[in-house]
Design brief:
Elements lengths: L7 E5 L4 H12 L3 E6 L14 H13 L4 E5 L5 H15 L4 E4 L11 H23 L8 E5 L18 H24 L5 E7 L10 H7 L8 H8 L12 H12 L10 E4 L13
Parallel strand pairs: 1-2, 1-4, 2-3, 4-5, 5-6, 6-7
Helix pairs in contact: 1-2, 1-8, 3-4, 4-5, 6-7
Family: Belongs to the short-chain dehydrogenases/reductases (SDR) family.
Organism: Trebonia kvetii
InterPro entries: NAD(P)-bd_dom_sf, SDR_fam, SDR_subfam_1
Length: about 290
């Protein structure tokens, strides 16, 4: 206990899923939390996002651990909203030590393909950059920035795609690759200031986004209306280990490590929590 005691963490996408898990895990280890989420749906995406009640539940879980929380509805595509959220948090807590740029949406085939491209890329790519850049002026030596990537950043999926048919899915991959490169170069820039920057790359994670029909169809395109039971065996294709997904806490434990002083000399790392998924795509290379 107490691995991030007394620290303040800013977490995007904290309404549910991985973001909520990160917020609770860091709070369990002593951090106070600035939690943000969009809390409404996006028209081009064929599934529901977190709600205001979801964000309230995240705040309740944090407070139940006797930690403080500032919960703000904000869209990561709008940097000014993140600046305002951080300002509110710092007014309450006095500082900022940890940034978890986590908010993301899963790219899916959409009836509005170009809108889906923009919304997916802006959330998963620009949203990460907005969160980081909104926080940078407040970070001091010892601070830690953690971005959520994806094993999709390492996959060559283009041979499996029909060009122009899945703009949201391709935008997701492109955004995650950009985040990986951005964080690598940011780590190099921040290292002399003793501020660390790393990426955690999850494989499939057992969250609400893995339990929606558009995701089922991605893995079972042979069925018109696949169910979770239909898709679950296909989810195994992403991992070398014989599992369909990892749990949110598996990613949160990696985030906690990178946020803590245990990782005080760890920076510029692309940390895969993927049950060996990378091993299915690449041979060893230095």
């Amino acid at each position: 206990m107490g691995r991030v005691q007394g620290k303040v963490a800013f977490i995007t996408g904290a309404g549910r899923g991985q973001g909520r898990s990160h917020a609770v895990r860091l709070a369990e280890e002593g951090a106070d939390i600035i939690a943000v989420d969009i809390c409404h749906d996006v028209d081009s995406l064929p599934y529901h996002l977190a709600s205001p009640d979801d964000l309230k539940e995240t705040a309740r879980l944090i407070e139940a651990l006797d930690r403080r929380v500032v919960a703000v509805q904000a869209d990561v595509r709008e940097r000014a909203q993140l600046v305002e959220a951080i300002d509110r948090g710092i007014a309450e807590f006095g500082k900022l030590d940890i940034v978890v740029a986590n908010a993301g949406v899963i790219g899916q085939k959409s009836e509005q393909p170009l809108h889906a491209w923009a919304d997916v890329f802006d959330t998963n790519g620009l949203g990460i950059i907005n969160a980081v850049h909104a926080a940078l002026p407040h970070l001091q030596a010892g601070a830690s920035i953690i971005a959520t990537g994806s094993t999709a950043a390492f996959m060559n999926t283009l041979p499996m795609q029909q060009v122009g048919t899945d703009s949201g899915g391709i935008a997701y991959m492109v955004a995650k690759r950009m985040v990986s490169s951005f964080m690598h170069d940011l780590a190099r820039e921040l290292a002399p200031r003793q501020i660390r920057a790393n990426v955690v790359h999850p494989t499939n994670v057992n969250t609400d986004m893995m339990r929606v029909e558009p995701m089922f169809r991605s893995f079972r395109p042979d069925l018109e209306h696949p169910t979770l039971e239909d898709a679950l065996p296909a989810y195994h294709v992403q991992q070398a280990m014989p599992i369909p997904w990892v749990e949110p806490v598996d990613i949160s434990n990696a985030v906690l490590y990178l946020a803590s002083d245990e990782a005080r000399y760890v920076t510029g790392v692309q940390l895969r929590v993927d049950a060996g998924g990378y091993l299915k795509w690449y041979d060893y290379h230095a």
